[in-house]
Every structure is written in structure tokens, then in C-alpha cells.
User: Fold this.
Amino acid sequence: MYRRALVVGALAVATAGCTDRLHDLAASTPRDLAVASRYVDDDPLVPAESVRAQPPGLPTHALAFRSSTGAKRAILGDAERTLSFVDATPFVDDGGDAVLVVLQRLAPPGLDVRLGSVSRIGDRALRVTADEIGHRPGDEDDPAVHTLLVRLADGRGQPERVVVSVEGDRAGVTV
Assistant:
């Protein structure tokens, strides 16, 4: 028991500040799928691509990108955390093996959206499940944009379709 507590404590100290990596490790994924995620607590997308540009009543929105150029066109120039994640992505169209899925959620401020799991739902189709984490302050009238960036590299070949699900709301995107 003492040894287990010591190992857990050492891992907590060693990974302090690496929240993205901890969430990646916690997400359940098939073995031939590489997944990385980053939560962004604002809206890094240009207004035309944002969840706020969607019809009212659709709180979950997803976009997929196969190239760095396409992703950077949809991202605001001052969104440094998002751009650094994009720069680290080896996109399929750029000679790499990954696609980028941007999941956006309109929800009360004070929440985070975290990667829950990635699973196969058919041939060349994936489901990305995310969870709302945190305290719901109850301010449903003024929702904030919560963004989760998910990098997917599939050993079976690039996915053709990705369905995202957050708290029961779904959005699908063709890659």
C-alpha cells in the first residue's frame, strides 16, 4: 500500500502542469489509435467557423482538418495555445498521419470540456466522447464557448467520419 502511494505521489509531482498529457493517458482508446487533446477555455476560431455561428439550440459543434493550412485558416491569429497545438500536429495532407478535430461546446462558464474516450463505431469511423467537468454555476442565459482540440492518428488509416458527443449532445463531421 505504501509503495502504491509513493508511486502515485511521484507521478503527480513529475507530471505537475502537464494536464493535457494526463487527460490523454486517462482517455480509453484502441491500441492502434494515437490521441492527444488540449482544452482551450475560449473561442479560438474565426467567427464564421465558431459554434456561435451555428443555428440556435445546437450547443455542440465539430470541425475536422486534414492540413495545417486548412486549420490555420479557421483559427484566429492571436490564439497562441491553439496554434501551437496545430503546429505540433503531423497532418495527413502534409505527409503525416493525423487529423485534427475541433469540438466546441456552448455551456455555462466555470466548466471545462475534457476528453473521455475514443472508440471505433464502424469502418473508418470514430466516436470522440467528452465530458463537462467543473461546477455548473447555473448561468444558462450567458453560455461561454469551450473548445477541445483532439489530434487523432489511426494506424488503420485516416478516419472518414468522426462523431463527437458531449453530455448526450452529438455532432458529426466528415474528415
Summary: The helical segments are 2-14, 19-26, 68-73, 80-87. The first strand starts at residue 33 and ends at 40. The chain is about 20% helix and 40% strand. The two ends are 47 Å apart (CA to CA).
